[in-house]
Structures are given as C-alpha cells and as structure tokens.
Specification:
Length: 339
Amino acid sequence: MNEKRTVNVALLFSGDSEGAYIARKKAAGVVINIFLIVLIAGLCFSILYPLLNLVPIVFSSMDDLGNPNIIWLPKKFSLVSFKAAARFVMPAGAWTLLKTVIYATAIMFIQVFFSAMVGYSIARVKSVFSKIAFFLVILSFLVPRQSLLLAQYIFFKHFDFLGIMNLVTAKGEVDLINNPIVLVLLAIFGFGVNQSLFIFIFSQFFKNIPKELEEAAMMDGCGFIGTYFKIMLPNAIPTISTVSILSFVWNYGDTYYTNYFNAEGGLMSTLLSKTFVGANKNYVLNAVQTWFDLPTINDFAFDAVKQAGVLIYLIPLLIVFLIGQRYLVENMEKSGIVG
C-alpha cells in the first residue's frame, strides 16, 4: 500500500501515466543489469586474459613459438615446455613438489597453533603485559621485515640461544643457515610469514566471544588452559580455517625467508625464482635444446618454459583454492578481519 502511494505521488509530480512510469522503471532496471553484466564480464576477461594467452605459448611446439599467425590455439600441440619446466623446478621429480607441500603444511600448523594461543592470551588476559604484547604484534606487522634481516641472519649464523649451544657443542655456537629448523623457529617465535597478522586475527576473534562462555567453563571446573582447548578452539574453527588457508598459500609461495635461510632446501619457490632469471636465459635454452635434440631454438622458448614452470608450481595452490575457497569466503567476516 505504501509503495503504491509512493508511485502515485511520483506520478502526480511527473504528470505521467502509471503504465508509462512502470515501463520506464523496468527499462532503467534492464539497463542497469546490462551495465553490471558487461562490467563483470570485462573484469573477468581482464583477469583471465593472461591465462588464456598462455595456451598458445606453453602448449605449442618449439618451432611454432613466436609465429605471428598463432593467436589463441597452438598449431601443433606439444608438452615439451612442461617436460622441460618439470626438469628445472622438480629436479627430484614429484618429491620436490611433495616436499614443498609438506614444508608449507608443517609451517601452517605451527603458525596456527602458536598464533591462536598468543591471540587468545592477548584478548583474554587483562594486564599491562597483554597491552604491550598487542602493541609489539602491531609493530612487528608494520616494521618491514627487511629491516630485521641482518640481525636475524647473524643470530642464526652464530646461533647460541642463552648459551645453550656452549653447553652442548665444543664450538659454543651452531650455524643454522641452510637448515629448515630456522623456518620452524621463526614460526614458533611469531616471526613467520605474516604471522603477526594471524595473531591479530585470532586476538580480534577471541575478543568478541562472550565472557559468559569462560565463566560457565570455570564454574564447571575448567582452568585457563582447559577453557582454551575445550571451549575457545572449537568456537574458533572458522578463524582457524581462514588462517590455515592464508598461511599455507603464503608459506608455499614464500621466496624471502627460504632464499636467505634455506636456499639449499630444494623448495619449488626457490628453484623457480633462481632458475628463470634473465642471467640464466642462455643456460635454459641450451639445456632444453640438448635434452630434446632440437636443431634450433629461439628466445621465445625461455618464456614458454618459464610459464609452464609457473603453472606446475600453481597446481597445489589451485587445489587448495578449489577446496577451501568456500570456507574462506564464508568465514572471512567471522575471522576478525573486519568488525
């Protein structure tokens, strides 16, 4: 009734008939919908265009690379680029990919475990120290990690935490560079990849949980730790799933910490960043020509092998995205990132 009264008032001031007004309103709605569809289609095309453009590059034979007549589909289908890329980025075969996934998964579990514990303590323990800890978390997120690199490198190069190594070894210090234990220690002490952000997400989530849950748990005999594991963690499943996905993706693709602290670890991110640089162009082309007995090879083969290597590298990330994107979208608002 109110809507009809509004329409009649609008007609009174415009002087149009009711049928003309409704027709004009429907036409405006159709125009807006067409505009939105065109806008979304344009955005999707701009995002997918680089991937579509890879098809004639990575699936073409080496002889057809650089052919201006080939635009969207390869003239001769070939997997030479993928075979060559696999030998560069996976020198140990599937074990290289599996080792990278295991590394990212292990660091993910460590980051989630310690970040959730620290975030809960900051959110629920009301003291000056919790405020100082929260300030340090925000500070570590704002400070560029490059500014901490020299101190961290020297610390792990001559590792002797609290003099413990002096008691265990004769040297008094241990060189942990190129040892994966460095990445584990960084994750344990809160300096892993974007770990301060994870602590912030957990602290914001636990801060919004009603205090009545804690009070009820304590009345039932649960202490601080028991309340955390039995009450808080089960309620934090949405946040845990969100942080887990982000942690896996960022650690899998990290080239900063892995290049400086575990450069010889044989992870795919490190191999990819080191192999396909401009200085190695001739090396890559000569290796491909030798491996596949090609009479000639052009410079476009370097880009083809490089892009094929990137696609191989992205396979685990695409799987994680397909499995977890629904949970990520559903739980983003509940994770404490907003609100």
